[in-house]
Amino acid sequence: MKHCEILHKDLFAYLEKELPPVQLQHLDHHISECAECNRMLEEFRRMLALMEEQKSIEPRSFAETRIMQGIESRLEKQPKSASAVFVRLLQPALISAGVAAALTTGYFIGSDFADTHSQYTQNDEMIEAVRTDLNVPEFMTDDLFYFTE
Amino acid sequence: MTDQELITGIVNHDKPVIQFLVNKYHKQVITTSFHFVHDMDDAEDIAQDVCIEILESIGRFKKTSSLSTWIYRITVNKSLNFIRRNKRKQLVKQFETFFHKSNDHAGLETYEPIEDDNPYDNTERKQILDTAINSLPESQKTAFILSKFEELSYKEIAEVMNLSLASVESLLQRAKQNLQKRLIIQFSEYSNKRV
After folding, report:
1. pLDDT for B94
2. CATH says B116-195 is which class?
3. Quick check: B108 and B118 in contact, CB under 8 A?
4. Nearest CA in chain B to A51
5. How does DSSP assign A28-78, residue by residue?
6. Cα dist. B39→B33, B34, B83, B95 in Å?
7. Contact at 8 Å (CB) between A148 and A120?
8. CATH number listed for the domain at residues B1-85
């Protein structure tokens, strides 16, 4: 393998001095004589220097505030989304349950009232029958109506 | 504040603790994602996603590694997902940059002679470097960025990537080989174009 190819294969290793000393010496000698390899090596050195510069990159001054705002708006949305679930699911369910309870209560009150009413009617008819049979004047049975109520 | 205190505070959505978390880790997250996406706005967006992910999934943190390592893992995943999602968008952007650059070069070449000892300026050099790093397979790119830019040890990289030490060594070796191959090709093509 030609020295140029060896260097191209191990450019990073050469620059980071990770090659065995003997190989480093051979390549040093080659580079001193080969303009093309010298140029390539110089370009790689600059590339590594650029990578070093990239290490010290800093976030922008407002980055922390921006991130914090994003988090806060997300946290604010969480209870809102819970209330949205309430509005969409629980509220209609509660309203339906309320209406059902009102209807059931109404039904029972209504049926109870009907029973009482029919009982009153039966009492009235009984008194009226007795009054007619005994030929009792109507004003005398008024109190009976009063007591049956 | 210890990691455990930090975790408890995050679980309780304690605002001063969250503020402390952001203050402590935002630089790490932004610079790491920046090395993946090469754009500060995108890196900040990713950092925001990372912090929200931390808040939402802190319960799944198993404490087998440090909090910092876990945050690196989330950052790497978010950055790689961002790149995958934006691959098409970036392709269009690269085309635009390429044509823009080509026009710029056409203009510059008529005024500025090529200096043999310094054929590129740092903007061009950075673009070449970014393109070469971007073209690496995901795992090699991740190992390379964490090692070269974030200066993590092999052990830390192994924890972040959930790999063995030997795998990390091999990935880094292949990343360097591939990177220098791509850089040599790009230098040669660019030199030929400009000469």
Report:
1. 65
2. mainly alpha
3. no
4. B149
5. HHHHHH-HHHHHHHHHHHHHHHHHHHHHT----TTHHHHHHHHHHHHHHHH
6. 9, 6, 11, 16
7. yes
8. 1.10.1740.10
Q: To the nearest 10°, the Cα dihedral for B80, B86, B87, B92?
A: -150
Are B184 and A40 a contacting pair at CB < 8 A? yes
Q: What is the pLDDT of residues B74-125, one digit of tens each?
A: 999 999 999 998 876 666 666 666 666 655 554 443 334 344 455 667 788 8
Does the distance separating the beta carbons of A51 and B129 come in below 8 Å? yes
Residue A80's pLDDT is what? 47
Which residues of A sit within 8 Å Cβ distance of B?
8-9, 11-13, 39-40, 42-44, 46-47, 50-51, 54-55, 57-60, 63-64, 66-68, 70-71, 74-75
Q: Does B105 touch chain A (CB under 8 A)?
A: no
The whole-angstrom separation of Cα B66 and Cα B61 is 10
Same fold, B1-85 and B116-195: no
Contact at CB, B13 and A75, closer than 8 angstroms: yes
How sure is the predictor about A141, in pLDDT bands with cuts at 50, 70 and 90?
Answer: low
Token pair, residue A130, equals: 């007795």
Contact between B144 and B170 under an 8 Å Cβ cutoff? The reply is no
User: What is the C-alpha separation between A139 and B62, in angstroms, rounded?
Assistant: 93
Q: What is the pLDDT of residues A57-103, one digit of tens each?
A: 899 989 999 999 988 888 887 654 455 555 566 777 888 888 999 99
Q: Does B177 touch chain A (CB under 8 A)?
A: yes
Chain B residues within 8 A of A63 when measuring between CB atoms:
26, 30, 44, 47
| Residue ranges per structural domain of chain B | 1-85, 87-114, 116-195
Give the pLDDT score at B49: 94
- Helix (H) / strand (E) element for B41: namely helix B40-57
